[in-house]
Write a structure and sequence with these properties.
Elements: H1 33-38, E1 48-50, E2 55-56, H2 59-70, E3 77-84, E4 95-103, E5 106-119, E6 122-126, E7 132-135, E8 140-148, H3 151-167, H4 179-188, E9 193-199, E10 204-205, H5 212-224
Parallel strand pairs: 3-9
Antiparallel strand pairs: 1-8, 2-10, 3-8, 4-5, 4-8, 5-6, 6-7
């Protein structure tokens, strides 16, 4: 992408921690999506978007992000592209999704459900592997497709030590500083507003190697319809 715009690479290092903290012995797992974005502090200096590298979001999602970020807004006004749950699950296993609640076009709550499985046109999640809770297919979920004002980097930085203090004693090897956790905390204490940008795109992702054929077929179909250029798969 360097021929189209300025590109900088920022690496999420496990030892990028606040002063006074160290990596727990035996920890090899990265610190999660919130920490990944936090590592960009000092490089990103304005409103910004966040996406996952292994998800296909569709063109309307990117347009929604651009339109939001292009408008002049307060630093603490953010947005999330909300997908319908039924458009984001795979036939090949379980997925993790941020299940959302909204009011008057603004996000009021997002809860990370780490084990969601498809159930026909709907889905269900479990916390313990035995008990399941049904989720309607039209449930809005976060796919880590965000538009953030500059203040989010400062919020991630400010809240990280408290999160470490709370989580290191109970889960030092695997606890993750999830981006939705921080966003949710900002909503709850009134330090941010998060607009919901509805999206009806079909999500495609490479969560499992078995997803490869369906992803290739979907992109090939969009190429044939002219949504993407012929050279996309070359």
């Amino acid at each position: 992408m360097e021929k189209y715009f300025d590109v900088k690479y920022v690496f999420q290092s496990i030892d990028t921690l606040p002063e006074g903290y160290s990596v727990p012995e035996g920890r090899v797992k990265p610190w999660g999506t919130g920490h990944a974005v936090l590592c960009c502090r000092g490089v990103v200096d304005g409103p910004f978007a966040v996406i996952n590298a292994d998800d296909f979001y569709g063109p309307t999602a990117y347009k929604a992000l651009y339109d939001f970020l292009a408008a002049k807004r307060p630093e603490n006004e953010h947005a999330m592209v909300a997908y319908l749950l039924r458009n984001t699950v795979t036939e090949n296993g379980y997925v993790s999704r941020g299940v959302c609640q909204a009011e008057d076009g603004c996000l009021t709550d997002v809860v990370e459900r780490v084990h969601i499985e498809k159930r026909g046109a709907d889905a269900a999640y479990t916390e313990d592997g035995e008990h399941w809770v049904d989720l309607p297919g039209e449930t809005q979920v976060s796919m880590n497709c965000w538009a953030f004002g500059r203040s989010m980097l400062d919020e991630l930085y400010r809240r990280f030590p408290g999160w470490l203090d709370e989580n290191l004693p109970v889960n030092p090897l695997k606890a993750e500083y999830f981006l939705p956790f921080v966003t949710n905390a900002c909503i709850k204490d009134g330090s941010a507003v998060v607009r919901v940008l509805p999206c009806h795109e079909q999500w495609y992702g490479m969560t499992y190697k078995e997803d490869m054929d369906s992803v290739k077929a979907a992109i090939r179909g969009m190429r044939e319809k002219g949504v993407y250029p012929e050279a996309l798969l070359d």
